Each structure stands twice: as structure tokens, then as C-alpha cells.
Amino acid sequence: MNHGLDVLINRRELLQLMAAGATSGALPAVALAASGPATADAPAGAPAGSDALGADTPRIDGTLKVTGRAPYAIEHQVENLVHGVLVQSTIASGRVARMEASKARAAPGVLAVYTPGNAPRILPASVYTKGGAATEAFLPLQDDRVLWNGQHIAFVVAETLEQAMEAAHLIEVEYETSTAVLDAGDAQAPVVPVDALDVSWGDAQAAMQQADVKVHGVYTTPREYNLPIELHACIAAWQGDELTVWEPSQWVGGAGAVIAEWMGIPVEKVHIVSPFIGGGFGSKVSPHPHVAITCAAARALGRPVKTSLTRQQTFTGYGGRPRTHQELTLGARRDGTLVAIHHRSWNETAMEDIHQEPCNAVTPLMYAVPNFSSRHSLRRAHTVNPGWLRAPGETPSAYALETAMDELSYELGIDPLELRLKNYAEADPEAKVPWTTRQLKEAYAAGAQAFGWARRPPQPRSMREGRELIGWGMATGTYPVRRTPGQARITLCQDGRIEVRSAGVDLGTGTYTILSQTVADALNVPTGQIDVILGDTSLPLAPLAGGSQLANVLVGAVHKGALALRAELLRIAATDARSPLRHARAAELVLADGKVLSSRTPEMAMAFGALLRATRRDKVDIDADTFSEGAGPEERYQANRTFKKMVSPTAGGVSAHAWSAQFVEVRVDEDFGTVRVRRMVGAFDSGRVFNPRLARSQWMGGMIMGLGQALLEDGVFDPRTGRVVSASLADYLVAVNADVPAITTISVGVPDLKATALGGKAVGELGIVGVAAAISNAVYHATGKRVRDLPITMEKLV
Ligand code: MCN
Ligand code: MOS
């Protein structure tokens, strides 16, 4: 056995070495200077070879995932289960005039056909902007109105999935159509100003008049979709007046609150189970309308109901990132100093629901500029309400700003990186407070060096290889450090195992792994001795795995708990009358390799479990949290169920953000206009990194999503009907392995103890921000063509 494992590891190492060699061999001649670490640097402090916090270790849930023992929500086995299938509208605006469901009701195995005429009642839930936890106010089948093409209008429940699908096809619908606003850019689209998002200082208009040089651009991004591998699908089961929902969720507490409101029952009666999730990227922050009708039908029928949206239905069953439109003007002096930024933007939202994609999330933050004005508004269209998608706001914002900065660099004849350094913000320009840490200069330097930026010829179209034009581009990214308090419980059991419990989830990010590393670190035990239990409302409360906050919140709570457990173990060893170590002096006792021992008599080392048995204890439980001293039940409830307790990045007179610099090489086929990204280098300041392998995987994942956003992703709708045309993975293109080049990630962060308990900053959302601009800038450098409408497809280049 052992022998086999050795061989495996050696083979893998060998393959990695070969892969590394092959990559550098394939690097283009123009890029010889490109080098740098292939993986993120391990931060100082991680003991070599250990699996403690900071160590580069694989995911502890990895084996479960690859052996099929990490089931999705709807793979859960439930007795007596029936199946729900949704029917969606085929018009964008109007009402359901008549629905002929008698054939469907008579079809074999059918238990119920719910229409706007007979659907069980669903009560409104408070949406998050007002402090609740839902992302949309729409309630399915509660009236006959149709507000977008692809809206849920009927729900069929049958004994088998096939019977439900068959019956769903037998439903005939007649509509009364009314005029739809399909294009949010149209003059008749209702406009919703969002005054709270206005940012201004100085006098941007006046200063712009005086500027030596101005660049002005209109930048647009299309609808983009989250497309997690695991579809949005749930099982709802009632036991009397209590409800259990197996629902893939980024936030079980929030999901429980929404579902309780929908069903009109106390929140304590709802149990959400979500231990493993097949990705969400923002779309699983809140349960969507199909969950409401599933829970309501399960109650009406007295049977557990399972519902899965089809892939096609996910395009209109909930929303992705909305279309955005930005007009941005930069004014500068000849020497490159910015004098004014003027920014107007809007995003598409639904007719009766609000989603904000604040396109000015990054604009006021990045550069030292004395005059600034930005205003963001929403424009309504007949569409499903858009939603969150990785770095909502920051992604389009950085795309426009960082493209405009590139345009300015050419206008001035200054290197794009130099221009950014020239306008470097030493403090938060909007809040006018110091950064907690800003290792952005370090990111520029490390990224530029690894990429070989110094060797970039300034002129567009100055590098080519055969038919391919080569371009180099760069851009900056940032993501705020958000914080909502959370809790964890640590239990030492008699058999020596340590259990960590929290309601927080692991989206595929690595929460399980970093929490076990946190305990391993504080207690000096191998991670193999630790079990982490996550994603269930019966566990200690936690905020959403969203806004890139969960890792820092939970690591903080678990670390506190582990230190308390350590103190408790030492106390028991030194003071319990039955402890074999009671004669040792407390100061001499240490924890090593899962044992308590006295440095003077190491031969008397006692395993943690043995100490509990000797002192007749079943277990030791420790509760810990990141709440401030004396936080009451109301505060804890709000943190668990609403957004009210999320601490702003500028709380406490400092400004906490993560930063990045992205460098990209593209090859553009001059005849066909096809763009291939050939290499990407991302340098990141995420503060202290808890696990370099997982952080690299997160940053890379973000960079790959950014590549898709820049070149492929395009949510197209039919301008005549509002039908989403690209509603499949064949029509809505995302980056796949063949699109993904060599990616280098570099960590330049330092522990930021003003930002979070253990000094980490945001990781999960940071990787995507700035990537689309870097690619777009590289395409300009290659071709001399500026494309300001994503994605950059071939027809825009030829
Ligand atoms: N990490 C670290 N050091 C830190 C902080 C984080 O090593 N200082 C690593 C950890 O492995 C941690 C991960 O990065 O588990 C993400 O941490 P964090 O940035 O706190 O993000 P959250 O845990 O809050 O996860 C949510 C975040 C968001 S908001 C989106 S959107 C997104 C993302 O994570 N969706 C994802 N990454 C995703 N990754 C996967 N596989 N699937 C998704 O749906
Ligand atoms: Mo991330 S879009 O905040 O879930």
C-alpha cells in the first residue's frame, strides 16, 4: 500500500516537473523575460511539511468529491418522494388569459397541476435591500401576470419525473399580450435613480474643462450567467408543521429566513441542509422562486417534492449579471496626473424587482483624483430580475475604468503601468482614510516582473508572429473586505477526534480545509484528526459565503475557539485530580502532535482523548464567535438572517480592500479576428493567505471567468420577443480548458490585522476583477482596435 502511494507521488511530481518544463519551452520568443513562481508564494509562518494554516495542502473534501460521496441536494434519498416540473411563459409581457390543464391533470401519475388559478398561497419575503434575505420579490403563480419571457407560470407534480415532464407538455396556454420593454437602453424604459450610489467630490465638470487631455468612452457589458455545474434544484419535505429543505445554498440562515416568510411559519421550523454545493458564484445566495412553489406544493400534497430547473430554465428562473452601460470620461494633465473623473452608468433590472450592479464600485477607489463625479441608475425591462455574479459591481466597474486608463496612456504616450503609478492612491480617495494595507505597488512590480512587462514595445501592432498579432495588456483589480460576524463550535471527543461545526458553507472554495487547518495550527494536531461539519441551519450561525467574507469570518471564530480549547486542555491536565500530568507545572505543559505533555517529562505525553478518558470527561465543547463582546440574540439573529450586520470596508476609520494587478498576452489572427489568450499573470494582495493552493485555485478560477467574460460570454435575447436565445451551454459560451493558457498567480499580501482577525482579505471574488480590461487592453495593443462592448468577438475585430 505504502509503496504504491510513494510511486504515485513520485509520478505526479515528475509529471508536474515535465509540465513546468513544457510550459516554459512553449513561451514565445518575445516573452523570454516572463518567469516567476508557478504557484502562489507560501506566506511566512507555515511550518514546512505541516498542514497547519498557511500550508499548501489539498482539500480535505477532495476524496469525497471524486468518489461521489459529496452528494448534491437532490441526490439525497427521501421516502415517498414526488417530482415537480415547471412550465415557463413564452411571452414577455401580458397575462395568462386561459390555461388548459385538463389533459395534464388526467395524465398518468399526475398528482397536481398548479396554475395561477389554483396555486397554493406563498407570502412575500422581505428582500435583502430592506434588511431581509431574498434577492427578488417575485412570487411564482400568485397571479396571472407575465413580466418576462421564461417566467414560471405552472407547476406539475407527478409520481415520476418523466410523468411530470410529459404532463407539463400537455398544458395549453393562451396569453393576452401587452407591450413589452425588452431593451433597457430604449427611451421608454423606466429609469430608477439610486441616489445612495452617487459619489462626488471637488468639481469634476469644471476641472474637466481645464484638462490638457481627455478620453471619453462608452463601455457596455451584456447579460452574463452564473452557470454552476450543479443546477438549481431542491427537495422540500414537511414533518407536521416543520419543513426540511435540501437546497444548494451559499447561506443556509438566509435561505431559512426567506422560506419561513414564504410559508408563513416561524424560522425555527425551517431546516436547511446544504453540506456540498456544485458552485454558485452568487446565484445561490438566496433561494429562488422555484423553491417557494416546491415547498408550498409539498405542504399541499403532504408528500416530499423534488424540483430541478433544467439548464435552459436557469437562464430565466433567476437572473445573472445584468447588462451594464457606462459613460466614462477621464481628464489629465500632460504629465499624466488625473484631474477629473466623470462617470455615468446604468444596469438593467426587472420591471417590478430591483437589482443593483453598482458600476462605480471601483471608480472612486482606485486613483488619487481631486475632482470626481459618478452616478449610477437602473433601467427597467421585461426580464427576470438580474442577480449576483462574482464581484457584482466591481467587475464591470473595473472593466470601464481600467480600459479608459489604457486609452489615456496612449493619448499621453505614457506606459500604462507608469500612468497607474503616477496616480497611485496612498489613501482611500473617497472615504479620505488610510488603507489598512495596500500592497498594490508590490502587485504591479511582481506581476510586471513575472510577465516581462518592461520589454513591451509601446506601439500597437508592433509584435507579430506569422499571421498572428501579439498584444500585451494590463489592468488593476480590487475587492472590498466585508465582514459579518459568525459562530463556530469546537468539540474534543473522547476518542481524540476534534469536530468543528458551523452553518457556513463550502461552495467549492475550501472552507472545510481551511477550518481544519486553523484547528491543526492552534492545537498542534494533524488535520486527519479533525472533522468539519458545515452547511446546516441546526449548526452555529454563520453569514453568507458571499462578498468574499466567509473564510476570514470563520477562520477568525474557529481560531478563537481552538485557543480556548487549548487553554481548557492545559487547565484540565494541570489541575484535574485524575490527570496523570497534574504534578507538572502549568507553564511546562505544551501541546504537540495531538498530545499534552510536560517539556520535562515528555515520555508522559497524553493523547487528547486519553486525557479526557483519564479525567472522566465525555467531551469538551467550546463555542466561539467574531461578534463583539456582549452581542445579544437580536444581533446574532440579524447577522445570521439579514445583511444588516455586514461591516463596511471603511468601518473604524480605515479602508480595507484586497488588490490585484493582471497582465495578459493575446494572439489575434489578423484575417479571422480570433483572439487567443496565451498567458496570464495575476499578482494578488489578499493579505495573509490561509492555503496557497486553494487561494491560487480561487484566483485562477476568477481569471478564467474573466477570460470568458472578455471573449465569450454573451447573454443574447430576441429583440422581438425577449426570449433568451443563448439559453444553453452550447449557445452561451464559457471558457473551457482549450481556451485557458498558462496562468501564473503571485501572492504579495501581508497579514492585515486591521482588516480581519487573522489578517486575511478577500480571495474568491478578487480574481475576476480587472481581467476583462487587461484582455481588452492587450487586444488593442495587438490590433490597434479598441472594442468597448464585451465580449470581444471576431466580428468586432475584422
Ligand atoms: N482563502 C485563503 N486565504 C484567505 C481567504 C480565502 O486561502 N485569506 C481561500 C480559502 O480556500 C477560502 C477561499 O479562498 O475557502 C474563498 O474565500 P473568500 O474569499 O472568503 O470567499 P467565501 O468563502 O466567502 O466564498 C464565496 C466567494 C464568492 S462571493 C463567489 S461569487 C465565488 C467564490 O467564492 N463562488 C465560487 N469562489 C467560488 N469558488 C467555487 N469553486 N465555486 C463558487 O461558486
Ligand atoms: Mo459572490 S457574487 O458575493 O456570491
TrEMBL record:
Entry keyword Transcription regulation: no
Kindly state which keywords UniProt assigns to this record, in alphabetical order.
Answer: Molybdenum, Oxidoreductase
Q: Does the keyword Oxidoreductase apply?
A: yes
EC number of this enzyme: 1.17.1.4, 1.3.7.9
Q: What class of enzyme is it?
A: oxidoreductase
- Name all Aldehyde oxidase/xanthine dehydrogenase a/b hammerhead domain ranges: 67-179
- Provide a Gene Ontology MF annotation, just one: xanthine dehydrogenase activity
Q: Which InterPro entries match?
A: Ald_Oxase/Xan_DH_a/b (IPR000674), Ald_Oxase/Xan_DH_a/b_sf (IPR036856), Ald_Oxase/xanthine_DH-like (IPR016208), AldOxase/xan_DH_MoCoBD1 (IPR008274), AldOxase/xan_DH_MoCoBD2 (IPR046867), AldOxase/xan_DH_Mopterin-bd_sf (IPR037165), TAT_signal (IPR006311)
- Mind telling me which PROSITE patterns this protein's record contains? TAT
Which PANTHER family does UniProt cross-reference here? ALDEHYDE OXIDASE 1-RELATED, XANTHINE DEHYDROGENASE
Q: What is this protein called?
A: Xanthine dehydrogenase yagR molybdenum binding subunit
Q: Which organism is it from?
A: Bordetella ansorpii
Traced from the root, the source organism's taxonomic lineage reads: Bacteria, Pseudomonadati, Pseudomonadota, Betaproteobacteria, Burkholderiales
Q: State which gene encodes it.
A: yagR_2
